[in-house]
Amino acid sequence: MSYESSLIIGLWLISFCYVVWETGDRTKIQFGRYLKASEDEPFLVAIREWCKALGFLAATAAAVFAFRQFDLARERADSDRRPWIGLANPSMANQEALLGSDDELSFSIASQVKNSGLSPALQIATASEIYLSETRYSGEHKGFVRYSTQREAEATKTACAQAEQSPAANSLFPNDSAPVETYSIIDSELVREYRAEFDRVGDFAHFKVVVCVAYRAAHASNFHHTSYLLYVFPNNGRAIPSATADYQNVPVSISPGISYASVAD
Predict the structure, then answer these.
(1) Which of 48, 57, 130, 211 has the fewest CB atoms in 10 Å of its CB?
(2) 3-state DSSP assignment of residue 22
(3) By the 8 A CB rule, do 198 and 239 touch?
(4) Are 2 and 74 in contact (CB under 8 A)?
(5) Is 202 a member of any domain?
(6) In terms of domains, do 129 and 247 share one?
(7) Spatial distance between the Cα atoms of 260 and 34, rounded to a whole number of angstroms
(8) Are 101 and 203 members of one domain?
(9) In this structure, are 124 and 232 located in the same domain?
């Protein structure tokens, strides 16, 4: 419900409370007269006053319902006219990642963002969050789905929050598209966890990266989001080499993942 509708409904409710208050005071007066004079006229006047109050309540309820329907229609119209940003053709920007002397692995994901909506999209930005795949749940479907949903939801929340704060933002008109690169870093702790996982399960070990696109419509302050899950396989299914004093190029491949907690709002 919009701020304007809430304000109008609130004023109506205050007016209704005032009418009830006044009606109560008048009822007391009329019943006092009725008891003293033993006449029916004051009693009928009191009933008439309460009928007026109930009529005002019915009118207020009808107005609240009408404004709610108006808000729903406006929200539906806004949803039909709003921008919708999607991510297409994700791939490794250089087909390789850079392994630094600090044992961190960095790479960029190149993709296209397209506005398939009916209005311009503003402040379009992407960000990513990486975590190690849940291979320890191999053969346990319920545990796998439960962990995947929770972990992906956490990563999505983090990536989308970072995208909202990103200074690198673009704008797109309807049916326009533009190339974007999402820079990602796998920190040294996660690299060490991967090596241990690789020793345990071999080339089943891989990372998952959630890429989130954040954007907003014109004349709106809230952000919309679209997230995607990708599988990241470093070094062509082999172990990540140990860090050296110099930077090393490590081949990396990515593929679309099975999402359990994707976002499109």
Answers:
(1) 48
(2) helix
(3) yes
(4) yes
(5) yes
(6) yes
(7) 71
(8) yes
(9) yes
What is the CB-side half-sphere exposure of residue 206 using CA atoms within 13 A? Answer: 17
Q: Which residues contact 222 (CB under 8 A, 6 or more apart)?
A: 216
**Residue 186 domain-assigned (yes or no):** yes
Angle at 215 between CA 260 and CA 180, to 5 degrees: 85
DSSP letter assigned to residue 244: -
Q: E strands within 101-163?
A: 105-115, 121-132
Distance of CA 174 to the CA centre of its chain: 21
Task: Give exposure, 172-198, as e/b (b: 16+ Cβ within 10 Å).
Answer: beeeeeeebebebebeeebbebbeebb
Does residue 14 sit in the same domain as residue 130? Answer: no
pTM here is: 0.68
Model pLDDT for residues 140-187, shown as the tens digit of each residue: 555 556 667 788 889 999 999 999 998 878 899 999 999 998 988 888
Comparing CA positions, the residue from 192, 206, 182 lying closest to residue 134 is 206
* 153/36 Cα distance (integer angstroms): 72
Contact (Cβ atoms closer than 8 angstroms) between residue 209 and residue 128: yes
Amino acid at 163: A
State the residue range of the domain holding 118: 85-256
Report residue 146: phi and psi, to 5°.
Answer: -65, -50
Nearest CA among 189, 167, 90 for reference residue 123: 167
